[in-house]
């Protein structure tokens, strides 16, 4: 297949050194110039809407690149385009200028954008604050300080006000509110639940996604621990201790190729997923073995390199698209403006460090050998992480978004999330191919007209010695209950994981359970996969089994219990359901249920083997692994009996 239109303009950058990373940042900042307003205070990248106003959307486009710009300037970098932002600070904070950002109200999106500005004042004061006019500085500190008496959401947003005050303190502003900052920090500490993890909100919130790590909380804690070390040493050391614990879990969300496991919301922030590792370096924090400085550097840079190669992440002018591996509005949230993806610029924080820093002075190391082919129970986020057989993924039960978010069932409710295969979102609520029902059990009570997937998971807990599997409940209707056990791969069958379901229903239902969605095209012609056997690329439907093999690897699903009515099929999902590939197929098991109220048991084995590196397709010999079948743990088998 031709590489035309599939090659990123940034792919030739090796992103191996500080200079390489700096060039990538500059190459991202330069294309913003034509989209910048005459007064410099707004960046307009497109016409899609958000739940907040258009001025705030333009402020996003202006502020979010500052995460990278401030790090670059603070680390000694020189960028002529920085004058656009200095000019923008002078004008955007000026109530009498036509490009004024507007005063802040309660729970205002402008509060989010203040975090990057506060960071910039703290790390690049000489290049930004000192370069502003006297009137501009007065206006900016008044504008930032205007959030101190406003109501904020009871979430990670409180960190944005902390960063505003932190920046004000570092420039000696009288608008710095030490009392307000301490109160916010004290409240944020109530989100902490142990093992390094913080939830994104008060007790009762069950969200521990990338906001608990790279997007907000852990990142903010580490940056604060460096900037406020003299003023708040006890709290800073606590933040550092949390990061040391957290890192040993968080490393499990990355694979040896640099990809992070897509999970949760705001994934259009892309390589912000790895910014925790950059924040570790910024905070000069040495982590426990095997997370050496070389390993930390590799985790960060491999992820950035992966995203530099994704052509679909960028428009042809070099600006970022809204989506994941390609433009995709179905997977976004109503707070994603065209400027939102530039939250990824948090990952440029290592540009603030000198070449002599251990992050840059130590050679890059691969993913730790001791963590390969292992499985770990992650108790706080209710995940089981594994990379047995060369496939990095998590099993998940128990997380859910605490408020309405588009496609939250897909973002939090699926059984498994893979670094290689990603996950799929619904593009409609009708026929099965619109639902994106990978790694979920979809149910329909109207003959397949509409489908429900797990959104609210109840009674989730670990069972078995040391938390060997996850057990949970789902109540899609008042007269339907689904109990599910998720069992990770074993060394005996490393490419399979198990899902055991008990369905009890008083209404007639159809069910469809999907495996991993996978790239669904032929290699040479790019036409749709056709039926095939053996190790050839194609699809296979064989009784209660289905699988698909393509250049992306192999995905399959099999009923291995006594359920006789299940039938395997390979569904061609609607275009743009999957986050990683716009054309996907989905091995699926379908069944019908009479609604007699008796227990019905499914024992589902799910197979996944992604291709590695530049290889086309799964490694030869994979059919031998396909012929294996996992064993149901004795305690779960006893329930079935």
From TrEMBL:
It comes from the Eukaryota. This is DUF2264 domain-containing protein. Residues 17-367, 374-637 form the DUF2264 domain. Pfam families: DUF2264, DUF2264_C. Coiled coil: none annotated. Signal peptide: none annotated. InterPro entries: DUF2264_C, DUF2264_N, UCP014753.
